[in-house]
Write a structure and sequence with these properties.
The structure holds two protein chains of two kinds. Chain A is of the alpha/beta class. An eight-stranded parallel barrel of chain A has the order 1-2-3-4-5-6-7-8, surrounded by five helices. In chain A, strand 3, helix 8 and strand 4 form a beta-alpha-beta unit. The relative contact order of chain A is 0.17. By secondary structure, chain B is of the alpha/beta class. Chain B is globular. Classes of the chains: A alpha/beta, B alpha/beta. Chains A and B meet through helix 5 of A and helix 2 of B.
Amino acid sequence: MTFCDEISKLKDTDVAGLLGRGSQPIGSILAKTELQPQDFMALLAPKDPTSLEDMAQAAHSLTLKHFGRTILLYTPLYLANYCVNHCVYCGFNATNPVPRRVLTLPEVELEAKAIAATGLQHLLILTGESRLHSSVSYIKDCVDILRKYFASISIEIYPLSVEEYEQLIAAGVDGLTIYQEVYHQDTYSLLHPKGPKRDYRYRLEAPERAGQAGIRTINIGPLLGLYEWRSEVFFAGLHAAYLQRMFPDIEVSLSLPRMRPQFGDYRPQYPVSDRDLVQGILALRLFLPRAGITISTRERAELRDNLIRLGVTKMSAGSSTAIGGHTDSKDGIGQFEISDTRSVDEMRKAVSALGYKPTLKDWHDLRLAS
Amino acid sequence: MDDTLLIRGTRVESRLFLGTGKFADYNLIPRVIKASGAKVVTVALRRVDYATPEENMLQYLPEGTILMPNTSGARTAAEAIRIARIAREAGCGDWVKIEVISDQKYLLPDNFETIKAIEVLAREGFVVLPYMSPDLMAAKRMADAGAAAIMPLGAPIGTNRGLKTRELVQVLISEINLPIIVDAGLGRPSEAAEAMELGAAAVLVNTAIATADDPVLMAEAFGLAVQAGRKGYLAGPGATQRFAEASSPLTGFLRNEAEVTP
């Protein structure tokens, strides 16, 4: 049974309503060695400050046990922003009159050199959904260049078939990032009026296809602000737990990106406060002790620094969401605004100052050996 | 008497082996090594970063350290073999700790894949130390395949739960004619001492030291505990079990009597 089939059983349940109910005691939950989905629900329900602090203490020690005092740093590289989708919240929406561009292979190499010079070894490459301008074979050509410079390459692109994932893995991709954006199906339909992304199931099952293809890491999550955050975090947590169960050899991690200002006039209908974000991160850490948790430069520097002790294990650094943003002096229009604008060097120093080891390399391309 | 640990002919002056993951700062590593007295240090190849000198863990290892790269991240024998070869090509020497894990939940090693990797790597001249789930038959096959030592887990990696596999480790110590090194799960110095008293040739510790409030002090504590446990083993009941007595001090007279009776 796929994850989509599993959650369709909850279709008629008012999960958001259930999760919004009053505070529930959590002492007995924090004492458990393994949490069940109902425990996870209780952790997502409204909390008083004392309970939140108790959750934070437990989350901190669990993270320390599983990951030590380390934070993996990576950066995104935007290859192309052509897109056929009409996601109403996205700056690269097909109808937005932003300049479109796809990096040539020499440009990819220049970006790679600029990023590698910062010391980063983990790269996330991104494209919009355009099988014309950023085809699988184009992405494969890019990976051929990039693997000379980086220890780990992850993709955040449109959902692929098992065979396509196999091709990219053979080329040197080891990680998949794909956000469902919104797990609530009716809202998903409203926000994706046109384009192949309308297919909720094909997107939701993409991590399973990548898993079948032999990917090493999978990063998933909701885009917070599009629907009730408690329900979205709950389903993302269930999704991660499902992937851990089905693919015991894959490292599963989660992100909780919040909507940021972007080109266009969409404003989030369900704003998520810092406190909400913290509770979401803590609940995920307690429910999934060994899952990585990523926090991007969408969030401001001060908040990111505070989140390090609460369960975060991966952070982006020196990011640009514009095409060619690592080498261009002139600013192109990005997918969304960056909030933490610190350089890689500044991030490394900041993480060290907090008593954590900024990790630049935590993988090795095995295809280099005979 | 010389009690130095020998692994494939190499004298190892400390019975505490160290892991290098989870540390907040690489500058702690030389201090931890010094405080613990450890000589063998394992480093995950996946975390060796040659691109940035201050990020290269190998730069932090004091002279005289025996480097034991490990195959962390390998899910199959083939991946472990590749990692070992990359490590050797990168100048990490011939020692390798084989670690094949395809279950991220319990991080329990895959003994079958590990045996396959040992067969290949031992033939290629590696000094192979396999991390394994303590199982007598698997350990025998690992010995036959050319392992230089056997490294059973005390409890799942990173759990700090102590020597939960005591009975099974004891069987390996009794039956396998190779150094048995308890790797993973030891959370306190007293648990390291317990493993040593049992007759383990050495122990490998990482999380318990790396995540301690004071890693350097904890490293020293583990170093002392390992020495204490070893001396306890050599001095105590372990010694009487190890060497068969020719006669029984208390009941020997009965046998003597029998001999003179026609």
